[in-house]
Amino acid sequence: MENAQWWSKLLPSTRDWLIANNGDRVPAHIIEEIRQAGGPIPSETGPTDEGQASDGYYPDEVIDWIEAASNDEGLPCPCGRSA
User: Fold this and answer.
1) Where are the domains of the chain?
2) pTM, rounded to two decimals
3) Residue 1: CB partners within 8 Å, gap ≥ 6?
4) 49-66: per-residue pLDDT in tens?
């Protein structure tokens, strides 16, 4: 799946949060929405006792891609997917 495809599947409020808080710890509910949309998951994220995703941080490559997406630069995704 191309980056633009999973990014477009996120709620506008989720995209806005990721742009406004780029580089910050990503809450589990946002990670879950990204996972369901087919997007990259922070490597530090692991299951909690309930089997749900925990909070995590994205690596610099994903942070850079989100910044580029917010500027509509169309950079390739660091996870091997294209924008």
Assistant:
1) 3-70
2) 0.72
3) 38, 81
4) 555 555 788 888 888 888
